[in-house]
Amino acid sequence: MKKLINSVLDVVPDMLQGLALSQPAIQLLQGQNIALRADVDALKARHEVALVSGGGAGHEPAHAGFIGPGLLTAAVVGDVFTSPSADAVLAAIEAVANPAGVLLIIKNYTGDRLNFGLAAEIARSRGIAVETVVVADDAALSARGDHAGRRGLAGTVLVHKVAGAAAAAGKPLAEVHAAAMHAAQAVSTMGVALSPCTVPAAGKPSFTLGDDEIELGLGIHGEPGVQRAPLAPARVLVERILNVLLQDQNIQAEERVALLINNLGGTPAMEMAIVTQAALHHLAQRGIHAERAWTGTFLSALEMSGVSLSLMRLDAPLLAALDAPAEASAWPAAHQGLIANPGRITRAGAGSLSSDTAGYAVAQAAARPGLKHAITQVLDTLEAAEPELTRMDQVVGDGDLGISLSRGAQALRQALPGYPLYDLPATLRAMSATLRRVLGGTSGPLYAIGLLRAAQSLQNTPGDGAAALRAATQGIMEVGGARQGDRTMLDALIPAASAWEDAAGLPLAQALQRAADAAEQGCAATAEVVARRGRSSYLGERALGHPDPGAKAVALWLQALAISC
Prior knowledge:
13% strand, 45% helix, elongated, alpha/beta, six-stranded mixed sheet
């Protein structure tokens, strides 16, 4: 187990102290794992209904992250994935209680219901007005069946928001309770996990998943879901989840909803945005109006990779409550949640400076068939080599070379029918423009400048392939700043250019084969070089024994050219 903790026993108090030290609006109740609004005394003085929620730790930023005006008054935190004790809940109630009363927002887990429920009973016996609302938004579990009932999931956050708006508006306990009940009944949630999580006290993952497996319909305590299924594209999984939620709430076309896309803890922001796009697109296709959508980490399961979707059927009071002012570290800023008009998320640019094929009007019938065959051979080779180049780059670089070159090859193949294949220099310039357009990173501009220099060389000295390769190599050296021996693509290009020049007078196929052989030897030699430039320069001696993938790519496409002649 690798976790940034001090000890398993101190996880919760250390976490809460760190939160309180960095959030001046939050204070801790002495001797307890309880977080409070720092202005709780002022809140009590103006007789505002207090909201208390909580549960086990491991769900951060919930629940303490939702403490603030318009949201929670206090959060009670148990051990990781363990309900806090009844005494802890009671201490929180007594710390925030005032004549307006206290509302407990409880997720539907047995431990939470028992401990929060017992604390509520004791508090009532002491003269404190207490109401409770139990959130059971888990749409993966039916209301009937041989289980403990639908679990409380990330939809609880929206219940916090609705109840918090009612309390901040000065409404009495009965109305705050009714608003929370209305919100709890209007929201449904379902999640998907791509990986398990590790509870610090357990020291090992809660379950295991194959590389192509996911868990659907899971809770928030690291437990498996209701179904294990094969991995599928994000849009497929999102549609599957949303269809369950829509059926659970019986939401029909033309109805309004709010959507909460919740990171279970370990999902990259890139994937969260992709899920958001898929969810809003699917709702629009179904004719359902998503009035609000929030994407982020709201209620996690430690470091679990995955996402949950919560869908709330909206009416005017719920929408107004969701839009009401609120301040808490984990609640998005006021401008977030608003849905952009799809027609406004893009705008026309100035247009490309030049099309890949602009100015070429000669029919493809005049194309040189040998040139088309040679280009196709190179593209086939680079696409087929993607797994090998990716594997090599994962060892000594950032792992994207094979994917980048394959993406470039696919773009070149798509544009190939429009290239002026009757004119080699013009074709190379068009290929450069394609790569410049579709490939960023390092490979795109380096190959683009190489093709431009080669085109210019062939324009000046038609038919001199060796000079063209030398010119391309020189251009890459000037732009990239590397030299031979720096462990880059140049360690294959420079010896290849020299070998082709030395083969002057030989048939083209033989000259190219010598160039390809020299490139392969240059590539192999990079395994014994400590990099000074390029992707491996950050690894130092750790890259020794592994040839440079950029040099390998050069050897591969030169070999493909030799075979095509």
